TrEMBL record:
UniProt cross-references to PANTHER family, sorted A to Z: PLACENTAL PROTEIN 6 (PTHR13377), TRANSMEMBRANE PROTEIN 115 (PTHR13377:SF3)
SMART domains: DUF1751
TM ranges: 28-46, 90-107, 119-143, 189-208, 215-232
Sorted UniProt keywords: Membrane, Transmembrane, Transmembrane helix
Domain of life of the source: Eukaryota
InterPro entries xrefs: TMEM115/Pdh1/Rbl19
Protein topology in the membrane: Multi-pass membrane protein
The organism's taxonomic lineage, starting at the top: Eukaryota, Fungi, Dikarya, Ascomycota, Saccharomycotina
Subcellular location: Membrane
Coarse class of the protein's main subcellular location: membrane
One term under GO cellular component: membrane
One annotated GO biological process: retrograde vesicle-mediated transport, Golgi to endoplasmic reticulum
Name assigned to this protein: Transmembrane protein
Length: 326
């Protein structure tokens, strides 16, 4: 799809809007999302009308069966999963339903119609993130009374935040829109910029509204989605199986602006080595993993990071030299 005007050009891959055949997992997620969100809205309206209390606010009516309420999670543990299918804000519902239909279809087709993998990403990663958020919220509630444990958390950010990370992974250099005849603005906005643009907007929104738990929620969700795609996703290409994405361009560092990369790099490097060597939570990538993932990323259009490749060759040469000397 392409739209060209005097000041801007909108450009999206045709494959992104190929909706002739909706894959199975996408269809299941869309139907579940509409059905459970609709059922929640209907039950809230029914309860609101039955109480007929003029002082009662509609937003105060909650359903712990499907909504993520920390104080009631032990009684309704299935809300960790069901909360992935609901939204109570209309703007977020509309964005998520469009994102599921268009983005879910595109991702599932690109993942070789692996329905289990898309369901695993949305439901398992989303549910594990929700569990982490509930535990963190309960711990914060023990420390400060400002954290309300009986208020629902928004447990459905995996589609909104996770899909842009996948777009960056699958088509990083593809232009979303291009500005023309405006020399004071950046001319190209590519998919690789979408995650940090979205996170910056959501972070600013939470800071302005002073919604600290929601701020924590979106960043935990962002990191959870990236960690799964980076280290644990099993991707099949014919008979070849790849675990994770070890490509240089998919490093966490390259999600952030160049201005703060020198500050973040030592922090991310130490965290990576600590998780690999001390905690042994993840398997460290070897040079073959990185080269293989770089080849796949370059086929997707990612630009090669020469500085990282040079540093890796130096490290490999140093390692070989040390082995020979010993």
């Amino acid at each position: 799809m392409r739209y060209n005007s005097k000041y801007f050009v909108i450009n999206s891959p045709d494959a992104l809007f190929n909706l002739n055949h909706t894959p199975q997992a996408t269809k299941f997620l869309v139907i579940g999302y509409v059905a459970i969100s609709g059922a929640l809205l209907f039950s809230r309206f029914s309860k609101y009308n039955s109480l007929a209390d003029p002082k009662l606010e509609f937003n105060s009516i909650v359903s712990p069966v499907v909504q993520l309420i920390p104080s009631k999670i032990w009684k309704f543990p299935f809300s960790l999963i069901l909360s992935n299918f609901i939204d109570v804000q209309m703007w977020k519902f509309i964005i998520n339903i469009i994102n599921l239909i268009i983005g879910g279809s595109f991702i599932e087709r690109t993942w070789n119609y692996d329905s289990k993998e898309l369901l695993r990403f949305v439901l398992i990663v989303g549910s594990m993130t929700n569990l982490a958020l509930v535990l963190i919220t309960i711990l914060l509630g023990l420390v400060t009374s400002r954290v309300q444990l009986d208020e629902p958390l928004d447990g459905n950010y995996t589609t909104l935040i996770g899909f842009p990370i996948i777009y960056k992974q699958l088509m990083p250099e593809t232009t979303i829109f291009q500005l023309k005849n405006l020399n004071f603005l950046s001319k190209n906005f590519r998919f690789k910029l979408l995650p940090i643009f979205l996170m910056s907007y959501l972070t600013l929104f939470c800071l302005i509204r002073m919604r600290w738990i929601q701020l924590l929620l979106i960043w935990v969700n962002f990191l959870s989605c990236w960690v799964y795609l980076r280290f644990f996703q099993v991707f099949k290409t014919g008979e070849q199986i790849t675990v994770g994405d070890a490509s240089d361009t998919f490093q966490l560092l390259y999600f952030f602006p160049d201005l703060i990369k020198p500050i973040l790099k030592p922090i991310f490097d130490k965290t990576y080595h600590f998780a690999c060597t001390k905690l042994q939570l993840i398997r460290p990538f070897d040079y073959d993993d990185v080269d293989k993932s770089n080849f796949i990323a370059e086929q997707r259009g990612a630009k090669k990071i020469t500085d990282t490749a040079v540093d890796r060759r130096k490290q490999l040469a140093l390692q070989i030299l040390q082995e020979r000397m010993s």
